[in-house]
Amino acid sequence: MWFLRLTRFERTRLISARAMQIALGAPPLVKVSPEDSPYDIAKKEFEEKVLPLSVVRVFPNGKRVFLEVGENNGQSRAEAD
Fold first, then answer.
1. How many CB atoms lie within 10 A of CB 67?
2. How far is CA 36 from CA 10, 40, 77, in A?
3. From the CA atom positions of the chain, what is the Rg in Å?
């Protein structure tokens, strides 16, 4: 289903939010090298599917869809409320 995939805007927002967390002292969840920036680390976490964030979409009819990003980057698992 089309609504189970992340949009480019959601992907950017998730990586940016995680980069800010890392910059403020959150421990990285992937192996990093000293020259990696917080953005590089967050992008690597996203690509390795360990990003500890989720997306909640609210549709006009009130239906909510929760995408667990850390498990599969929002590609297939959704939980409707």
1. 24
2. 23, 6, 30
3. 14
Question: What does the pLDDT look like over 20-58, one tens digit per residue?
Answer: 999 999 999 999 999 999 999 999 999 999 988 989 889
C-alpha 51: how far from chain center: 5
Listed by start position, the domains of the chain span 2-25+37-80
Q: Angle of helix 38-47 relative to helix 8-23, nearest 10 degrees?
A: 130
Look up the CATH superfamily of 2-25+37-80: RNA polymerase subunit, RPB6/omega (3.90.940.10)
